[in-house]
Write a structure and sequence with these properties.
The chain is of the alpha/beta class. Helix content is 32%, strand content 12%. The protein has a 6-stranded mixed beta sheet, sandwiched between helices.
Length: 184
């Protein structure tokens, strides 16, 4: 496995995929990916680089007593490593030991950020690569709010009300992840 430090940033899909392909599991046996959003609006997020953001975010996690955080951070231009992919992270109370946490930059609530295609594409790439690594199907994807033990009921976005279009459409994400998995 290639040793990649926490906070490492990949600017290209190719470099990120090569890193994922290098991962070998020991005790950590993830079974699915959990999609999150930072709750930091994109305008504010853009004031720092991914390489600056991850250490700052992790300093906050340490103050909360967490040993780690989500595995991957995604913004409009890069993939960042928040936690080595061969160990459990901290991102969802019921699922830390059995899943990868994928944290997207943005605040996807009504009246907040619009979900950018660039972030969606990077999330799809990350989840597709991790699903292939785990040997699981696209439909194993979970949204953070689906964890019954979390207090983050609007992460990565609030669930859509009947008749409303979701801000991040899980069915569309699964379809895109499935298609991407066939191409990598």
């Amino acid at each position: 496995m290639v040793k990649i430090p926490v906070g490492a940033v990949f600017g290209t899909e190719k470099d990120f995929l090569n890193y994922v392909k290098s991962i070998k599991f020991d005790a950590f046996k993830p079974r699915f990916c959990v999609l999150h959003a930072t709750g930091i609006d994109l305008k504010s997020w853009r004031t720092h680089t991914m390489g600056e953001r991850i250490p700052n975010i992790f300093a906050g996690y340490k103050k909360m007593g967490w040993h780690s955080g989500p595995h991957i951070f995604i913004d409009e231009i890069s993939f960042g490593i928040g936690c080595p992919l061969n160990v459990s992270g901290v991102h969802s109370p019921s699922w830390n030991d059995i899943s990868f946490g994928i944290e997207q930059a943005g605040w996807y609530w009504p009246g907040r950020d619009v979900y950018p295609e660039s972030i969606q594409n990077r999330a799809v790439t990350a989840i597709a690569a991790l699903n292939k690594l785990m040997g699981v199907a696209a439909d194993t994807l979970k949204f953070h709010y689906e964890d019954s033990a979390t207090t983050h009921r609007g992460c990565p976005c609030p669930p859509a009300k009947p008749g409303e279009k979701p801000i991040i459409d899980k069915a569309v994400m699964i379809e895109l992840i499935d298609k991407k998995m066939k191409g990598i």
